[in-house]
Amino acid sequence: MNINAFVILPGSKTGTSVRLKAKTIRELQLEKVQLETENKEMEKKLQQLRSNMSREKEERRKSSAYRWKSGRAGPMTVQARVLSQSKASNNKV
């Protein structure tokens, strides 16, 4: 008997196993090969993306004519409300 022909199912009692059919084993092996090839393709794409981002970052660093100043999204502070209201009242006059 081949030990690899058995699998322990999740949620089953400890030590309980079910014999796999030969067709199922072949399907699992094909799926494994397919997942490995997809994994290699994704790793290649990830490496390409990293190199592109690195190149773009270097280009931005070299041509740093201006810098982006990020702000925070969220509710306005009291000072911001007062300032916006005073600007609005100045425009009315």
Describe this structure in words.
60% of the residues lie in helices and 4% in strands. It has 93 residues and is mostly helical. Strands 1-2 form a two-stranded antiparallel sheet. 0% of the residues are buried. It comes from Chroicocephalus maculipennis (Brown-hooded gull). Residues 82-93 have a biased composition (Polar residues).
Summarize the structure.
With 93 residues, the chain is mainly alpha-helical.
Strand tally: 2
| Anisotropy-based shape | elongated
Distance between the termini: 94 Å
Flag low-confidence runs.
none
Structural class: mainly alpha
Write the H/E string, N to C.
Answer: EEHH
Relative strand content: under 5%
Main sheet record: 2 strands, antiparallel
Compute the number of helices: 2
Order of strands across the widest beta sheet? 1-2
**Rounded average pLDDT:** 75
| Helix proportion | 55-70%
Calculate Rg over CA atoms: 30 Å
What key phrases describe this protein's structure?
single chain, mainly alpha, elongated, ZBBX protein, ZBBX
